[in-house]
Prior knowledge:
By secondary structure, this protein is α/β, with parallel strands linked by helices. Helix content is 44%, strand content 14%. It has three domains: 15-224 and 304-314, HUPs (Rossmann fold), CATH 3.40.50.620; 228-300, no CATH class; 327-427, Orthogonal Bundle (Tyrosyl-Transfer RNA Synthetase). The chain has 17 helices and twelve strands. Strands 1-2-12-6-3-4-5 form a seven-stranded mixed beta sheet, sandwiched between helices. The radius of gyration is 23 Å and the shape is globular. 41% of the residues are buried. Mean pLDDT is 82; it is low at 226-242, 261-279 and 285-300. Bound molecules: iron/sulfur cluster. Iron/sulfur cluster binds at residues 349-351, 363, 365, 368, 370-371, 392, 397-399, 402-403.
Amino acid sequence: xxxxxxxxxxxxxxxxxxxxxxxxxxxxxxxxxxxxxxxxxxxxxxxxxxxxxxxxxxxxxxxxxxxxxxxxxxxxxxxxxxxxxxxxxxxxxxxxxxxxxxxxxxxxxxxxxxxxxxxxxxxxxxxxxxxxxxxxxxxxxxxxxxxxxxxxxxxxxxxxxxxxxxxxxxxxxxxxxxxxxxxxxxxxxxxxxxxxxxxxxxxxxxxxxxxxxxxxxxxxxxxxxxxxxxxxxxxxxxxxxxxxxxxxxxxxxxxxxxxxxxxxxxxxxxxxxxxxxxxxxxxxxxxxxxxxxxxxxxxxxxxxxxxxxxxxxxxxxxxxxxxxxxxxxxxxxxxxxxxxxxxxxxxxxxxxxxxxxxxxxxxxxxxxxxxxxxxxxxxxxxxxxxxxxxxxxxxxxxxxxxxxxxxxxxxxxxxxxxxxxxxxxxxxxxxxxxx
Length: 435
Ligand code: SF4
């Protein structure tokens, strides 16, 4: 079975296959005011998004956690994640951003001081300029936040080497920091549910599919450490509430627990019908009867299993994955508008070999990096996008003017964005937490 390596620059083509292989559910939620990434299938899968959907629909608290790897310049692929974060913030989420300086040190050898400088000078002002509200956003450093490291060592006890190898496929060449770093990520994802950071609540982590190993690890660990578990037909399950009659169902469950001899338990999940998550099938089912088993660690470790959404990874302008280490493959948010324009004009397209062939047989927008820019970033109007797709297929739209259109939009966008980023530098202090 193919493993996903979160630190490689591998490009994935068949997302449906990846979804099936790793048990990722298709993303089919009808979100209010959904931005283009949600409505165009760029976000193609999820784990546990049901409670985030409930939180959005019912105006309940939820958190969003994302991270930045301070090892290079921010590009349009990173912008995509922040746009999702901004959407969740607009729907009421509090935002936590981890500077993955421990990970950058472990995997890229970047000293902590350099990581700090890159994060503060490059990433944080860009986040503000991309529209995150400084008053409801915090940026922290993995290396400075004790709670993150505490969770990492505590939960390390819940994972064995076989599981690590199965998820990450580490080899004898990997040093010990490679093994520790994913546990720090588990700490990042879960610590926002500690009382100090807002308490247990649904948490969403929007990621590229390459980060799925971290999500699987975290959700598996939480599955073993939840406030209580219900075992039914041998599966380990978690309990949630949804629907109109939540209170009645909650009371019924409490009676049931008491009748089953449990006097110490805590249920603080304000959802409405009783559903259970089958952690093996990653699916939701209703329950009527269940055998309850109690885990004594629940008091200090009542975490919601974090939800994840998965977006497609952007194709680089040169083909392959868009990557910070291949400057020509990406539009960086620090590129001058002129530089960006040149990159788009040199981009790999799905056009015919010659103009005549293109006009005769049409182009293929589905393999074109310029069309992908339109879909992911540049064109908001769905009907115009459809028109671009069709006219390219029919050979009526040709690559030169098409690239110029994309280059012009990016040129103007970058100009405006870079002005905003200059102004945002004064606000950086507001959102950085030093503990
Ligand atoms: Fe891509 Fe536009 Fe050329 Fe079609 S016409 S292949 S969308 S650049």
